[in-house]
Design goal:
226 residues; alpha+beta; Heat Shock Protein 90; 2 domains; 4-stranded antiparallel sheet; two-stranded antiparallel ribbon; 8 helices
């Protein structure tokens, strides 16, 4: 794996850190569009409500006594949320998925509930399981991981309509639909590496198929119709 970015949200209150993580992953959870012949359909990489619940659950139930923080990892095809501590004592996996409230940190749960970060005790898991199967969870003695696969704009390099005319055409189509898209978002949506995206964009520019308008940070892509 190539590590593109690493951010730490410590050295502040846990509440502030939670809001920072929620905002960061909300930005990373980009929206893509499927445009069939009848109606435009927009979806996120991960179901937003589910991801929010998983983030809050991870933080509230993390065992902080060993100073090991939760970890949130973004890959090109999934988001992995990891909390430390495993199941709480005398809790079985059946209990964990039963949607009954068995908080590890009772006072922390109370504070989160008072702030509206937790709506109802035990409701987080039920929301997650409405959208995803329990198989996304990996439970070990010390860690609990939730692996959310991306609901992507294409499957195995194919667009929704099954177009297989090459990687360049796929990226070109994405640039047409979202002129402001970043290279990182292209990488996530296409499952291509950042290096591969850079090569494709370079070829498209050199062939005159796309033109960059404005700066790298605030500009956009224009498709050369000719």
């Amino acid at each position: 794996m190539d590590l593109i970015e690493n951010e730490e949200y410590g050295y502040c209150s846990l509440i502030k850190a939670t809001y920072s993580v929620l905002e960061k992953l909300k930005i990373e959870n980009v929206t893509y569009a499927k445009v069939p012949s009848t109606k435009r359909i927009e979806k996120n990489l991960v179901e937003p409500v589910t991801m929010r619940e998983a983030i809050v659950n991870c933080i509230v139930h993390n065992d902080f006594t060993h100073e090991i923080p939760p970890v949130f990892e973004i890959f090109n095809n999934r988001i992995v949320i990891t909390s430390y501590g495993g199941l709480i004592p005398n809790q079985s996996e059946e209990d964990y998925f039963s949607c009954s409230s068995m908080p590890r940190n009772r006072e922390l749960m109370r504070v989160f509930k008072d702030l509206g970060l937790v709506e109802q005790l035990g409701s987080g898991m039920s929301r997650i399981l409405k959208a995803y199967d329990k198989s996304i969870f990996q439970i070990s003695e010390h860690f609990i991981k939730a692996v959310f696969p991306f609901d992507k704009v294409m499957n195995n390099g194919k667009s929704f309509n099954g177009d297989e005319n090459g990687d360049e055409k796929l990226v070109l189509k994405m640039l047409m639909e979202q002129p402001n898209i970043t290279a990182k978002e292209l990488s996530i949506l296409s499952s291509f590496s950042m290096r591969k995206i850079s090569r494709i964009v370079k070829r498209l520019r050199e062939s005159g198929k796309i033109i960059r308008i404005g700066s790298d940070r605030k500009g956009y892509w224009k498709i050369n119709e000719k």
